[in-house]
Amino acid sequence: MGNSKFRQLQNNLRDRWLSVDSFDQDDRDILVVPSLTLDQREIKKVDGFLHYEERLLFSLIRLRNPHTRLIYITAQPLPPIVIDYYLQLLPGIPFSHARDRLLLMTTYDGSLKSLTQKILERPRLVERIRRALRPDKSYMVCYNSTYLERELSVQLDVPLLAPDPDLLYWGTKSGSRQIFQLSDVPHPDGSELVWNCEDLAEAAAQLWERQPQLRRIVVKLNEGFSGEGNAILELNPIAQAKPEQASHATRVRAIQQRLEHLRFQTTYETWKNFSSRIPELGAIVEAFIEGEEKRSPSVQGYITPQGKINILSTHDQILGGPDGQIYLGCHFPADETYRLTLQEMGIKIGQALAAKGAIERYGVDFVAVRQPHSSGVTWDLQAIEINLRKGGTTHPFMTLKFLTNGRYDLSTGLFHTQQGKDKYYVATDNLQKDCYRGLMPNDLMDIIAYHKLHFDSSTRTGNIFHLMGALSEFGKLGLTCIGNSPQQAENLYNQVVKVLDAETSTQSNYTTESSYPSTPIAWS
Fold this sequence. Notes:
This protein is of the alpha+beta class. Among the domains are: 2-162, no CATH class; 189-287, no CATH class; 421-524, TATA-Binding Protein.
């Protein structure tokens, strides 16, 4: 019954859909459930993960439409000053008018459970949400869609603007590889999904035999998040088991012994914990792409409920961790030498996902390796994984779109304001230093105001901050720096870092290195 009711609700959404822009201009109630409904043992590896519910606060900018009403639910109450900060960004809308159309609700539950589960466990809260929404004028958005979000959609009788959870597999590591193959998009050699360490070693040995030149293999939990579920298997220490020097059985045994020495991308991970997740989540192995000059671009797309593919953006991602596997931030747009190729591949992948029945946002991560060529610079692009959900590049781009009311130009891969001005940005979720710990949201607002670090609505340039709730405990902050040129965006980011360092230098006798580069990766 639940599945048929959910499909009926999604069909209603398809019937009412015209376009992304016109949909937001209608008289609508938007329910925002920013739940990271991911494996909680994996998400716990991310510092301040509970505050990632703030990443969808860009949705408040939708209140610029005077007919829109919005309900935003969080696990713990949001500081009022954070809400005020976003509402003050609205161009041409009186603050009080927007605030009257915003309803904030909370579960008052800081446990590791996902926010959606917390809501479902509180039937009175569910009923209050239901009463606040207007029938036939409402829809629900979320960070990622699972069976919990589907259940909440059905209980509220509100359509969910997200893929059916039955399609979740296509956003996993193994599912991504199958979509790449269907789309004829280049991707690294790798394995099918395995469920135990013995089969993992077997798959790694077979991959090594197919590619004897490999120096490293990536081991990925099938449902890892932001690269936190990735590990590196170094092959050099077991050189005696190389394909041309040993039997297959010898190679498998050598890899099995070496698995205990995987290099994990997060300091919290151990082989004992990682190996225990393989029977629960599954895992794959994949060839590690080497290269002297290597980048990590991505493309973001949107599948309308009618199945049309829209390319939203491209980015050059900034990755960290021992082997560059952890997402830290991004530049918009991606390098001009490959951004149009990213778009073409993104459309192919979007079409394959739409054929499976997926709707709403998807992102595709790539690895780009510079190739020597007599005619100039060329880049080899290999697709790595699909995110069938909102991701780290969603909120900065949507913030840019909502604040400037501009448009993405598919012919160039650039973003233009209504006045024809090109816009660029640098964004991160991981500006994190120990000396920032103890800063309260109010303190940050004082610093923003005093040093004029705010977003200027007249020039449509400046900084937009998020993850403010993670500052006090974790010293962690997110921001999007919008400029009229790549250099201006980079300068804005560097200015914020310089000011925060100076403002907090008296709080601590030392400053640790930020996990995000102190100077973003240079634009080409």
